[in-house]
Amino acid sequence: MMDINEIREFLPHRYPFLLVDRVAELDLEAKSISAYKNVTINEPFFNGHFPQHPIMPGVLIIEAMAQAAGILGFKMMGVKPEDGTLYYFVGSDKLRFRQPVVPGDQLILAARFISCKRSIWKFDCRATVDGKEVCSAEIICAERKL
């Protein structure tokens, strides 16, 4: 389990772009992570997306999955951003949205390591709400030394 203070050690993101509230499970042997984002009406994006029918933008769901995958990658390598390593989100394959995410939802983020070739990491990611899949994708990140 990782709380927000430890998460901030592994992700360079800060409010309003830090989209992982807690890591519930991290299994380095299985190369997988389970984390969550509590979605509240106080999120700044709800002011314009959409005021009368607030839904979480899909790109932010993808970003939340990528952040969970990033934590997994950092933990697998045993490094932190302060050590001079960053992951850049560079793409996704097999992206699917299945239902909207609204205020009050708890977005469960799951990522599993697939491969790493020439500093390009690939993760199988899923986002669920109440046990129903809302988004899935293979997230591709580039590892870069600063």
Verbal overview:
The protein is an alpha+beta fold and 146 residues long. The protein has a single domain (4-145), classed as Roll (Thiol Ester Dehydrase, Chain A). It contains 2 helices and 6 strands, in the order αββαββββ. A hairpin with a 4-residue loop joins strand 1 (22-27) and strand 2. The longest helix has 20 residues, at 58-77. The radius of gyration is 15 Å and the shape is globular. The two termini are 28 Å apart. The mean pLDDT is 97.
Mean pLDDT: 97
Strands, count = 6
Tell me the strand order in the biggest sheet. Answer: 1-2-4-5-6-3
CATH homologous superfamily classification: Hotdog Thioesterase
Profile the largest sheet: 6 strands, antiparallel
Structural class: alpha+beta
Report the principal-axis shape: globular
Strand content: 35-45%
Low-confidence stretches: none
Protein name: 3-hydroxyacyl-[acyl-carrier-protein] dehydratase FabZ
Keywords: Cytoplasm, Lipid A biosynthesis, Lipid biosynthesis, Lipid metabolism, Lyase
InterPro entries: FabA_FabZ, FabZ, HotDog_dom_sf
EC number: 4.2.1.59
